[in-house]
Known about the structure:
The complex is a heterodimer of chains A (about 325) and B (about 325). With about 325 residues, chain A is of the alpha/beta class. Chain A has helices at about 5-30, 45-50, 65-70, 75-85, 120-130, 150-160, 190-195, 210-225, 255-260, 265-275, 280-300, and strands spanning about 60, 110, 140-145, 165-170, 175, 180, 200-205, 230-235. In chain A, strands 2-1-3-4-8-7 form a six-stranded parallel beta sheet, with helices on both faces. The longest helix of chain B has 15 residues, at about 5-20. Chain B is built from twelve helices and 14 strands. At the A-B interface, helix 5 and helix 6 of A face helix 3, helix 4 and helix 5 of B. Magnesium ion binds next to strand 5 of chain A.
Amino acid sequence: MNRELTxxxxxxxxxxxxxxxxxxxxxxKGKLASTMCHVSIGQEAVAAGTCSAMQPQDYLxxxxxxxxxxxxxxxGLDRMMAELFGKETGYCKGRGGSMHITDISIxxxxxxxxxxxxxxxxxxxGLWSQISxxxxxxxxxxxxxxxxxxxxxxxxxxxxxxKLPVVYVVENNHYAMSLAWERSTAQQSFIEKxxxxxxxxxxxxxxxxxxxxxxxxxxIDRARKGEGPTLIGAHTYRFLGHSRADPSKYRSPEEEExxxxxxxxxxxRTKVGSDVLSDSDVEAYEAEVKQMLDAAVKFxxxxxxxxxxxxxxxxxx
Amino acid sequence: xxIMMYRDALRRALYEEMKADPSVFVLGEDIGLYGxxxxxxxxxxxxxxxxxxxxxxxxxxxxxxxxxxxxxVGGRPVAEIMYVDFMTLTMDQVxxxxxxxxxxxxxxxxxxxVIRTQQGTGRGAxxxxxxxxxxxxxHTPGLKVVAPSTPADAYGLLRASIQDDNPVIFLEHKGLYAxxxxxxxxPFVTSLGVADVRRTGSDVTLISYSRTMQLALEVAAQLEQxxxxxxxVDLRTLQPLDMExxxxxxxxxxxxxxxxxxxMTGGLGAEVSARITxxxxxxxxxxxxxxxxxxxxLPANVALEKYVVPNAEQVIRAIEETLAVKQQIAR
Lengths: 317, 331
Ligand SMILES: Cc1ncc(C[n+]2csc(CCOP(=O)(O)OP(=O)(O)O)c2C)c(N)n1
Ligand SMILES: [Mg+2]
């Protein structure tokens, strides 16, 4: 087992977890500029495992639940927090918010508010990589709910047909708002779903960051070699509601309790043991993360608000 | 000057842009082997190969999505959607993605892509293959919308659209592909956002674009026999609108009629008319008139189709009425 990788995966998951907790805290204080905010608490292993398998030149497309992808890909907390606070120093100049967080300098092609809306964009980034031979792979994250959108089929088919360097990572948290996975599709296996597109499918435990890393590495390698896309179904769970307004009445407390016991952070510590990930490692990460978040919140607070007149900027390039 | 068909002028623009810039490529349904449903891309596959002239599956949303994605990371794609009616299947990609990305992401990412499609009546193509849907696109800030009426404009505006860093909806007209006219031999680019006064006159300004420009010029010629002097403005770019040219003309003629093939309600005519009225109310001698298609789906029967879309008589009547009214200014 790669100790450095393990440590870094854990640290990334912790960073995502604590950042989202802090975001919720700041939201309760009324600090966020927008009401749109979906956290991925419980799902950190998918983002961390996948993004750790990516190379610097790679791209990713993200979703409405995208903080984890952004952080795991190396997005900065200061400007992220500023974006959520509606400040002009934010990544999107304070006009994108949580749901549209983006940093092109790390190959992040945007969090998308339209479920499935970025599937075609991922295929297009892959298409350009194929034409221009830029050696980049595009990772396309989406929720299992998005598998039922028409453009998902169109795009996966297109990528499969042309063997585009795209990797599809489905964060199957088993719910699309209130709709359970079982109530939304007759075929719940990603191995089986992938067969219809003529590409490999993988069902992976999305609470196990190392397992996700393995699956993503293999898929990304295949894609980079020109062998086409892979459909990875990462089975995970969102510990909280769809958004803050959601009390999750559509699922049982027993189910929630059972799934929350499968916390990706604990799973990793148990799996690798204190030999690899010691208590003092974890304490050090906690302290480091806390400091980063305090600094990010301070940066956001101290930054100037986005000015109304800027709404007329950047409509056209 | 060489005479060229509208479709050949479009192909020339694609050819020259692809030769000049390796990041330009074309994707769409039946554009390669088949040469395009309206033969615009004929021969390009042989010239540029299947990587840059990509026959796609029948997946309109993914075609436009792929064009957007490629544009975001360095490509300059030109996507062809066979009929504007099929743009309905791409509306999320066009409206929520292409038009929003540059603004929403704080100016970080440009989307330099062109979506070419064709619209309009004249071939009895029916309710799902004949519409003129420009209003849907001009209603979305972030898009540019272009609708050339001549081969020279088709060429110059397509080149400008490909060179532009924004998503451009490029609306051709199925009834114009075979139209022949002069196109200068020297390469040129026609700026987006600039209308063209196609005929000067002093009594009334007739504003149009795309194929109804032919009707506009026909009517202007007819009315000249009756000593009615019509100035004809071709908008060419529908977003951004060149209101400066329109207003300069109407300031002179003090009367205006807007003509288009799209349905009347919520059409571009309403927008142009409102802007003229807001800017020049006190100079106008009569209300701005609109001549447009009736608010009806298009029948797949050429005779019935003709009944829905504007004709010369309607345009002449609108101009006559405009000339007959003198606004009584209440004081
Ligand atoms: C096209 C579209 N339909 C509906 C919505 C409203 N909506 C936002 S998130 C969501 C559920 C998405 O489920 P999933 O794809 O599984 O992602 P998750 O929220 O579970 O991460 C819905 C219905 C939307 N934003 N876009
Ligand atoms: Mg889900």
